[in-house]
Every structure is written in C-alpha cells, then in structure tokens.
Amino acid sequence: MVNIALIGCTGSIGRQACEIVRRYPERFRFSALVCGKDKRALSALCAEFRPDFAALASGEEIPGLSQGTRQLKGEEILSRVFEGCGVAMIAAGGFAGLSYTLRAVEEGKRIALANKESLVCGGELVMRAAEEKGIDLVPVDSEHSAIFQALSFRRDTPFKRLVLTASGGPFRNFTEKELANVTAADALKHPTWNMGAKITVDSATLLNKGYEVIEAKWLYHTEFDKIQAVVHPESIVHSLVYFEDGAAIAQMGYPDMKLPIQLALTYPQRLPCCRQLDLEKIGTLRFERLQEEKFPCYALALAAGRSGGTAPTVLNGAAEEAVRAFLRGGISFPAIAETIGEVLSRIPREEAESLEVLQRADDLARKTAAEIIYVK
Ligand code: MG
Hints:
- It is built from 17 helices and 12 strands.
- The chain is of the alpha/beta class.
- The chain has a 7-stranded parallel sheet with strand order 4-3-2-1-5-6-7, sandwiched between helices. A 5-stranded mixed sheet has the order 11-10-8-9-12, covered by helices on one side.
- Strand 10 and strand 11 form a beta hairpin.
- Helix 4 packs parallel to helix 6 and helix 15 runs antiparallel to helix 16.
- The longest helix has 21 residues.
- The mean pLDDT is 96.
- Bound molecules: magnesium ion.
- Magnesium ion binds next to helix 7.
- Magnesium ion (MG) binds next to helix 7.
C-alpha cells in the first residue's frame, strides 16, 4: 500500500489522481489531502478517502471532518503534511507549489511532480536538494513523462536531444492581427487537452512550452541547446528522445493526464489506465515548426530560463498576474507577453540562493505586473 500526500487535490490533476486511487484502493491511499480554498470539495474528498491529515491553505475550518482526519493549520501544514507518506504528489498550481516540493525533498520523500513552477522557479534549489538527498523526482507533466518512458525510466540514460511536442494551442493558425482580439473564452478552448484555466491560457500563449523546456533542462541535467519544441497538433506523440545512433524513441497515446499521473505512482510497473490507440482512425500525424515570432511568451520563458537566478521566478510572477487580468477581461491577449517582458526588464536578476530570495522576487514581480496592468 502506497500512502500519498496529495497537494492540490481539487484541481485538474488532483481530481484525476483521486480517480486512480478510487480505481486501485488495494494499492493506494491518501495520507494527506490539501487544497487552496474549496472547502466543500475537500470535505467530500475527506469523507470518501479518510486521510490522516487534511488542510486548506486558506486556513478556514474544513466542515464535517471525521475523527480519523486531523486538520493541519498554519505552519503545521508544511511541517506535518508529508508525515507517513511514501509519495508526495505536488499538484498545486503556481509558485505556491514550490514550498511544498522543497519541503518534501528535504524530508527525503519520493516526489510525483505536477507543479511546473517548482522547477521553473526553483529548479536550482530543488535539484540541488534532491541530489543531496538522493530522492526520486518523477515528472507528471505528459511531455516529461514521455521522455522518462523513452529513457527507460532512467534519468541518467545518455541521449542526444530531447524533443517536446506542443499542440500549438487554439491559436496555432491565427494571424497576429487575429491574436490581438481573442478573448478569455477563446483561449480556454484547448483543442486536445482538458486542463485548468491558467495552464490552458499558458498553452495558448505557448508560455507553457517555454516552462516545459526549463523543466526538461533540470529534470534531465541537460542544456537548452539540446532541447527542441515542435508543434504536433494531434497531441498523440507526447515527446521524443533522439539518441546518438540516429534512433528516436517517442511515447504515444491519446491525450489523457491519467497515464502520467498513474505511471508516476507505479513505474516501472504499468497497470490498466487509458484506452489503446486506434492508428487507422487517427490516420495522419503532423509536425510543424513552432512559430516563436507569433508567440513571444515562449521566447521570454527561454530567455529567463537561460538567464537563471531569479529571472524565471520574476517571469512566472508576472505571468500569473497577467493571465489573471486577461481571464477577467482586463487586458488583451498580446498584453500578457508585453506585461511579462516589461516586468522582466524592470526587475534586476539575482542569484537564487534560497526560497526567501525567490519569494521576494515573486512578490516584487506581482506588484510590478499589477502596476503595469493598472495603467494598460
Ligand atoms: Mg505538458
């Protein structure tokens, strides 16, 4: 029986993780369930799964908890939430996920990582601590899971190049003029994947693909020059690894996050999870150049990733604010990239020495972004 501490249990990844535990109750149970503020959903999950610990980041009381579940509050959340767990699944969204990841790494827990910001913002800190502790950091992101599978579940398998696939988002064929007028509702219609709102917008701007390049760099100890992103509108090939001898190994499947979530819990073992591919029905698979010039968020993310230090944290803080403003109709789609670029140019880069340094950079980036958005 594997005990899972699930951070972010009511989001898109969290809900699918619950489905897996429901399907395999003899293998998995939750030792802890944590979410941001949806107390009714958390209460229902606690009644169903009876975890040892539950917590609401907002600090409110969780209604109707049974005696077997203890609610953690304040500083106790971070200090006790991983008690007794075999796997820490970090599925909280945004920068907030980083402190959970770092804590779980410090406690030497095996980590199933769905929170991108942990590596985008905290890659240096997280990987250094993970190496010191010798812990297993398993990707839940579909592209990085595909690479992990192509590398035979070994992050030290030698390779020549990593190729991340991108659906291209809903605006793949839009002109720059058309992009200026798209709305939040348009951006939320993702052609192939069903995900949370922030990441769906990040997929439309291709910021998400830039994040994934940074994630891949950290996870697979490589350089930016050895990572490429290519547009693949069908989202069947989830990523590829090129090897020295000319071989390329890809992982394929219908777009369904349950596979990478489940595999992060069971690998190298595979259990029934998703439906099999019907190749004759799929017919054609296309691959196209990623048009960086049309999607400046991608280049901004890569530049911040190459710069390192606090730059990716500043980028992310600005992006979280800008996307929030876009979703409520406050700024245009192109203004997301403009805001991020402006914030990055105003805030000087520092070394990412500690979580506190990153938290300050995040805070400053959000305030600066809010000022710029207010003027727009
Ligand atoms: Mg992905």
